[in-house]
Each structure stands twice: as C-alpha cells, then as structure tokens.
Amino acid sequence: MEIKYYSTRSSQEPVTASQAILKGLADDGGLFVPERIPALDKSLSELAAMDYRELAYEVMKLYLTDFTADELKECVAAAYDDKFDRPEIAPLVAVGEAHYLELFHGATIAFKDMALSVLPHLLTTAAKKNNVDSEIVILTATSGDTGKAALAGFADVKGTRIIVFYPKNGVSPIQEKQMVTQKGDNTYVVGIHGNFDDAQTGVKEIFGDRELAAQMAAEGFLFSSANSINIGRLVPQIVYYVYAYVGLLKQGTIKAGEPINVVVPTGNFGNILAAFYAKQMGLPIDKLICASNDNKVLYDFFGTGTYDRKREFILTSSPSMDILISSNLERLIYFLTGNDAESNRTLMQALGQDGVYRITPAMKAGLKDFYGNYATEAETAAVIGKIYGETGYVMDTHTAVAASVYEKYRAETGDKRPTVIVSTASPYKFSRSVMTAIETVLDGTEDFALIDRLAEVSGVKVPAAIEEIRNAPVLHTRECDTADMKKTVKDILGL
Q: What fold, for 92-109+232-467?
C-alpha cells in the first residue's frame, strides 16, 4: 500500500515519498512524516538470511512506496558498494557486556555515511520521477559529521550543488579538515561565527523564505536538504537497527522475538528516532536509551516533560552532540500528540518564541520506551580509558558517551538484556580527545602524530579517509556571520 507524507505542522495535502525527499522541509516549516509506520513484512529469520543491501531494500521499500523496485534496488546498490571498508557494511562487535554497532566504515568514517551514501541517488531519482529539471541546491547545517558525508555523497553529482554551513571553532580539527579539503566543482563549505543551533536555525529560515524560493525558481534552482530533517535521511537509518537485531540472532546471542535494548548517542534526535520507528515496525526493542553529553537538554526533557533550550551552550569533546535544538524530536512530539498537527505546531511555536515547551502528562506517559541520561566530559574520557584498558577496544568520544550512559542505566535498573550500543564515528576523527583519555598527551603534539600513535595503540590501520586529508590542500575558506547566511547562499548561486 502506498504511504503518503504529511507535515508535522499542518493538515495540508499529503505528498509522495519522492516529493517529500525532494522538498526536504515542508512549506510550513514542518517535517515530513509517514501517514502510518509500516510493519515489517518479512519474518526475522527471513531478514537474518539477507546481506545489508538486501535488507536495506526490504526496509526502505515499505516507506518509499512510489519508487519502483528497480529504482530502489539501483539506489541501494550504488550506495552500499566498495566505499565501505568492511563487506558487512556495519559490523557488530562484542565488547564487554554490550555489542557495538560500528557505523563508521564508510567513506567519511562516521554514521552519516549510512544514509548519505544513498540519499543522492534517492534525490536524483526523485527528481526524474517528478519531472524536475531545476538544479537542486542541497543546503545543510552540520555539527561535524553530516557536512563531510553530504559533501562526499553529492560531490560532482550532475544537477546538484551542495552548500554546507558548520560552526567555525565548533568541530574537531579532523572534522574541519575533512570538509575544507573537499573536492568537487559543486561543493561549498562555509564556517559560521556561531554554534550548530545558529547554523540549523539559519538554514531553516532560508528554507522558509518564500521570496528567495521564488527568486531561486526563476533562476532554475530548487532547495533540498541533506540533514536528517529530510525523510530520505531518516528512512535508511532504520535499516541498521534491523540489521543489528538479526545480526545478534545469527550470532546466537538472542532468539527470534527476544527483546534487546539500544543505546544511541544523541544530538539532533534523528538516529534514535530511527530506532523508535524500527520498534514501531515490530522490531523487538525494549528500551531506547538516549545518551547526551553536557548539553543535556534531552535528558532533562525525558525527566520532566519540559523542553528548555534556554541554557548555556557547552563545547565538548563530542561536538556532533553539541546541540540544544533537537530538530527530529518534533517527529516524536507529533507522534505523541496522536498526529495532531495543530497541537504540535503550537508547541514548536512556543520553542521558537519562548525557547521552551511542555508536553501533557499523557504525552509524557508515551515516553515510557525511552530512558535518558548524560555523561560529563570527565566520565566520557574515563570510559574510553577504562574500556581500552580492559579490552583493548578504542572508541570515539560520542560512542563513549553512550557507553557511559549504558553503565548508568545498568546500575540503576539491573537490566542485563542484550544491548546494542551505536558507535557513530571512528576514534580517528577525535584522535586528540581519545588519546588524551588513554595516555598522557603533551601540549603541542600535532594532530597527525596523535593519529599515528592511535594506530599503534589500537592496532587498527589509519583509515583512508584520514590519510587522504593528511596533506590535502584547503579548498574552502569562506566564513560568515549567522545574519549573513542568506546573503552567502545568494552570492554562491549568483543571485
């Protein structure tokens, strides 16, 4: 059955999956959500017999119903190819009391590769299906990893340009170098003088600018997004939770139907929302454990039912989680209202105007599947050192936040059911923080010297994604104030 997509903020006419992917953000500023969450239509044992590509098709076909089987299979085949350095795409590694789902084996060594490898193919296919001949301008804000993954995915893709805004001085040195050395005649990288929330807000405002949209259309341009506000980013993320579950099944760790827990380091809420959707599809997940860093707005929300972004923005060693406005939470809020767009819009307006909203007691009761907690900077470093010392396994700072929160969850609840911890980035992206947690690092030690030392202590070869930027020239030096983001976009496009 076909699934249409509605905005979380109005009851306007629904759109098809391909139209939702093309638009990225609804005209009213809402996010597109499926009219219903489909159920898995294959048994867990059937799914366990599939490789990643086959499984991706089986999950994504349930959401992207206006794509033909051939179209979707071509998108999947083009995405999950030899750009991943492991044949299984997303290895599941047993470490201590948990299993780590390593989502960093793609071209840019972060979990964003899992969805951003397929999004360009979905988007260009969607354009053909809808007879769109405009040049598609991908406009994206990044807290570190989305930017590079999107740039790599869209670089030199015919009929597209991509503009990425990132917080200057708000990402790791490796994350920044990955972006500013990006090749491709259609790629543009801009460091803003502000934080990720400023970048994300600025991008949303540009999307909502009707006058600019008309000017763009007149010049043959169409905006879309590679952020997780795009449903074409979210749907592919559901796949790897199904893959992790059937992986435990194949290993004999669980029996079919036995529930597991998942722990997700969370900033913009897209990754854990994908796990929530997987659970709603029938995947046997018990607890969705939401791990925050010192920017613990989500932890406070799960505890109180109040979302309050009016607080200090803290720069941490896990910068991809340094977020106070978790955009994808809006999709969960919409679900909790019973798909009531008017109620959701009222809450989102309160967030925009007052910086805070409160959900009803009934909605808060709907959060029972979630557990929230956070890890301080000291706790994050401590768990990296501890797990390395006990097992030899090296994890990045974001994964360490999740590992620390998992320890707190077990201590609080005594729940020992099989658990998957989502490992979202290679430790090589955050080598200074990781090595400092493992051993003494002298001030002034150069980043690539730390990378080489990390290879020694971990026994893991330096990834190609790091080697290729070691001596790569900087190609993008553009910066702007947040107030000038729209002007910067117009300058880039020659408007």
A: Rossmann fold (3.40.50)
